[in-house]
């Protein structure tokens, strides 16, 4: 029989304290449903009464499917629970549970609360009793517990024990300032569980030494049975324990999975990567590619020696299977790779090639030469695909660019306003016909060039109608022989497919033009345009 370990999500409360994060009400509702769907036991919605959004959330969020929890502080010193407006908001909120934050460090009681240790203990007692009287499940977040324990263990333990004896189901030990180390957490939680049963002890770790996940696991090793954390590690300052790392660890690592059970099933585990990306999308943040388990690079290898072994058996260089968390494996082609990376990439793009084909070596040499002058094929798979298809002779000569010209003019117009006008002209040869000349005005040189290029490609025009440039990134590189510019362009088409191409040149317009041309030719190849 496995021990049940409970997961408590505080994305909507501590996560809302993240610098740069501002949830809307619909974000909060969507996140709450997403958390319930993956099997999180407790969802802390926010702090009713602290702001109109959180108050409204508790009016609207019903039947979430997890224990929906309201957060707030214990009664203020010198007031009764019945006469504390903050407590009243908390007790009136439509929540299944109430989580009180309580002081447990005597220094904080003196300096921040400006009261006595006895009054703090009374405040914990009264607050828990008031919530119990309203039939709520009660949790007490013991703020600064670890720092408090180091300064005055008797007082910190008295606070935790008071909460427990008054009927709190959970006494949650908080590493509020995030400075405690795993061996300290394990030792201190070990002391707490002698006084409060581990089945009622939780951990709330902040990530200020990047050990919030390790600290949470250390607490579990010492007997704690609730972990508080957030999606993608959101939270005050450096964040909270990242549930996207904790959940797979608890599910997939025998040290935990063999004796502990969480509410997340295997199917939900397989949706974790999607959940993580969805949160970033809502927050308009670029996902952390290097996030453990769910990051885009978590199961990607550039190294040739690794790729060669992975092709034989992925377990050689993977600690868990990417599919378990809904992620995927990728072997990239770059200057760090060998024939195995190239073969894997050729298979991915659907080019069937004998593994002894000498052109594999040729392609690898070209990639390495071009990476040395600034190309980055691992970031521009569409340009790699074109390069590979050209080496294997499968890209038709669709379009030949005979000339292009960009003119940027800055002037004062008839209304006495300063204006900058950019015009690009492109001359291309398509098949045997007359050369085609197109001009376009854009908001900048690359925009103008893009518009002119795509204005008239003769018989290929119909294939590129839905093509759109969606991102443009420039980096100046110093390769030792003077600065060169690397341009990465992301494009999208009417099917929603997107791809990235690269151009490199000492001249930014030239680099952009190469990336634009690769994007167009890639689209023609994708669309199966005839030669
Ligand atoms: C470790 C954590 O993350 S705890 C959660 C922190 N999150 C937040 O603070 C976000 C939401 N907070 C808020 O919107 C506001 O701070 C409110 C509405 C809660 C309170 O606002 P205000 O009444 O204006 O008080 P203010 O924020 O200035 O100060 C907090 C007060 O609570 C008191 N307090 C702090 N913790 C506790 C506690 N655990 N129990 C009782 N009182 C407490 C402080 O001593 C201070 O009292 P004072 O005004 O007499 O000095
Ligand atoms: C409660 C809380 O967020 C903390 O102590 O860090």
Automatic annotation (TrEMBL):
Enzyme class label: transferase
Gene Ontology MF terms in the entry: (R)-citramalate synthase activity; 2-isopropylmalate synthase activity
EC code: 2.3.3.21
SUPFAM superfamilies referenced in this protein's UniProt entry, alphabetically: 2-isopropylmalate synthase LeuA, allosteric (dimerisation) domain, Aldolase
Domain Pyruvate carboxyltransferase: 5-270
This protein's UniProt keywords: Amino-acid biosynthesis, Branched-chain amino acid biosynthesis, Isoleucine biosynthesis, Transferase
Reaction catalysis annotation: pyruvate + acetyl-CoA + H2O = (3R)-citramalate + CoA + H(+)
Domain of life, source organism: Bacteria
Protein's pathway: Amino-acid biosynthesis; L-isoleucine biosynthesis; 2-oxobutanoate from pyruvate: step 1/3
One GO-annotated biological process of the protein: isoleucine biosynthetic process
Pfam families: HCS_D2 (PF22617), HMGL-like (PF00682), LeuA_dimer (PF08502)
NCBIfam families: citramal_synth (TIGR00977)
The family this protein is said to belong to: Belongs to the alpha-IPM synthase/homocitrate synthase family.
PANTHER family hit by this protein: (R)-CITRAMALATE SYNTHASE, ALPHA-IPM SYNTHASE/HOMOCITRATE SYNTHASE
Name by which UniProt lists this protein: Citramalate synthase
């Amino acid at each position: 029989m496995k021990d049940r370990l409970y997961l408590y999500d505080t994305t909507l409360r501590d996560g809302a304290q993240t610098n740069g994060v501002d949830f809307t009400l619909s974000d909060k509702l969507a996140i709450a449903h997403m958390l319930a769907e993956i099997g999180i036991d407790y969802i802390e919605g926010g702090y009713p009464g602290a702001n109109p959004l959180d108050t409204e959330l508790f009016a609207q969020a019903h039947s979430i499917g997890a224990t929906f929890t309201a957060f707030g502080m214990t009664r203020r010193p010198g007031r009764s629970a019945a006469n504390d407006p903050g407590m009243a908001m908390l007790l009136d909120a439509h929540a299944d549970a109430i989580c009180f934050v309580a002081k447990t460090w005597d220094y904080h009681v003196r300096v921040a609360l400006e009261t006595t240790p006895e009054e703090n203990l009374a405040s914990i007692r009264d607050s828990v009793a008031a919530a119990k009287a309203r039939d709520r499940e009660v949790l007490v977040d013991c703020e600064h517990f670890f720092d408090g324990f180091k300064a005055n263990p008797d007082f910190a333990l008295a606070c935790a024990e008071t909460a427990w004896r008054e009927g709190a189901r959970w006494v949650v030990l908080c590493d509020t300032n995030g400075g405690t180390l795993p061996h300290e957490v394990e030792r201190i939680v070990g002391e707490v569980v002698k006084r409060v049963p581990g089945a009622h002890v939780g951990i709330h770790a902040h990530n200020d030494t990047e050990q919030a996940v390790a600290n949470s696991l250390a607490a579990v090793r010492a007997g704690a049975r609730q972990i508080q954390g957030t999606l993608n590690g959101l939270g005050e300052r450096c964040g909270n324990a990242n549930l996207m790392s904790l959940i797979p660890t608890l599910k997939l690592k025998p040290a935990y999975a063999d004796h502990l059970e969480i509410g997340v099933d295997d199917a939900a585990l397989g949706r974790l990567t999607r959940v993580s990306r969805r949160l970033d999308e809502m927050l308009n943040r670029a996902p952390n590619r290097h996030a453990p388990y769910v990051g885009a690079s978590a199961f990607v290898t550039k190294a040739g020696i690794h790729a060669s072994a992975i092709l034989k058996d992925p377990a050689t260089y993977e600690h868990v299977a990417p599919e378990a968390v809904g992620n995927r494996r990728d072997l990239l082609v770059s200057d760090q790779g060998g024939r195995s990376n190239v073969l894997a990439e050729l298979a991915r793009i659907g080019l069937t090639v004998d593994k002894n084909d000498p052109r594999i070596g040729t392609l690898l040499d070209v990639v390495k030469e071009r990476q040395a002058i600034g190309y980055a094929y691992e970031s521009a798979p569409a340009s790699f695909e074109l390069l590979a298809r050209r080496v294997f002779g499968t890209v038709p000569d669709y379009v030949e660019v005979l000339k292009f010209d960009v003119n940027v003019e800055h002037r004062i117009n008839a209304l006495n306003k300063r204006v900058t006008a950019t015009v690009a002209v492109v001359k291309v040869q398509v098949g045997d016909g007359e050369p085609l000349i197109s001009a376009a005005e854009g908001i900048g040189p690359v925009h103008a060039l893009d518009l002119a290029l795509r204005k008239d490609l003769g018989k290929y025009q119909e294939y590129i109608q839905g093509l759109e440039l969606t991102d443009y990134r420039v980096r100046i590189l110093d390769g030792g022989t003077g600065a060169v510019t690397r341009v990465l362009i992301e494009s999208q088409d009417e099917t929603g497919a997107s791809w990235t191409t690269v151009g490199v040149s000492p001249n930014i317009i030239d680099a952009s033009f190469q990336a634009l041309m690769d994007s167009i030719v890639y689209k023609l190849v994708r669309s199966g345009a005839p030669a």
